[in-house]
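re: ur question from yesterday

yeah so i grabbed the chain u mentioned. its 374 aa long if i counted rite. heres the sequnce exactly as i have it in my notes:
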Amino acid sequence: MQIASVEAIPVRIPLKPERRMVSALGKHEVSEFVLVKLMTNDGLVGAGEATVTPQWSGETVWGAKSIIERLFAPLVTGCDPHDIDDLSTRMEKAAVGNWFARAAIEMACWDVVGQQAGKPIYELLGGACRPLTIRNRFSLGAYPPDVAGERAAALAEAGFETIKVKVATDPKLDVQRVQAVREAIGPERTLTVDANAGWRTVEQAMATLDRMADCHIALVEQPLLRNDFHGLKELRDVTGHKILADESCFDEMQLRELILHDCCDAITLYPGKQGGIARAHRMAALAGEAGIPCTIGSNLEWDVGAAGMMQFIVSSPNVQIETIPGDCLGPSYHEFAIVKNPLVIEGPFTTLPDTPGLGIEVDWDLVEQHRIDR
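ran it thru and got these structure tokens back, copy pasting raw so excuse formatting
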């Protein structure tokens, strides 16, 4: 089997009004992502998703489309999609960064390999180490405190046991928002916060977290600037807060720096950010060897990207979602799905089917209807 063609299709899908995201990075009201359609010489069609967000990974929908079709596609066309490591190395040598664009092609390769083998991707990665239905946390945007409290109460009623609140906007409102959420969900549920690298100094982070002390925060996600390993270490040691690293961990070198500095209690990984399912799988194992648990993060993926995340979750023992819930709920944030068999998402639970490849089938006609060209 050989890769015959790779097409990158930019698509726009709005978020549901009640699920539009606000964070230290700004507003996310409409998703403009890139879907990869990979075809093999024996007629198989694989799907991948580049969940690009300029404020987060630095990738744009148009940049991803261009680099996929003009640089990566010629490098992988004619190659065997089974040779995931070789394909990933080719792309990595051709362009630094571009994590989500590279991951989309790698994901599509896994999809066709799984289809040919008649197995889901998790079986090709060593088999499922947990059930195909997982419990998620919910990531609550940086809404006004009254809105945040109201939505948190509804989420608790819907069965969510862990609520993550976006912070690092206005310090006063951050505190009021977190307090409103804690009051709404009660003392028993788990509350975490995510600064998205929005606090510029250790002192700023410490001051804001100190004002939230009565909220009993379980984890503080990426409180400081990317790669501020010394700052994370200081914040962790002085405050005693448990730190979840996210934006500071894209590749193995950054992972090793987190381990070396002993500056975090857990790490967020996901296939898009890590440049592919295989690399994320390896990094989870490496973190596990150092005694650091991992969880899953989200860029509000559609069903293609979310299916790739689920394949990674169920096959990676050190993605310890049972004790550190992540979120794989992206499809439910959007107004419609672009697959014929959407992932089943019911309240806090997401279920991955046990069908070959990614486990979902893209509705390419619907994709064409929502293709964007500008």
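noticed a couple things. The chain has a mean pLDDT of 95. also Residues 3-118+362-369 form a domain with the Enolase-like; domain 1 fold (CATH 3.30.390.10).
anyway ttyl
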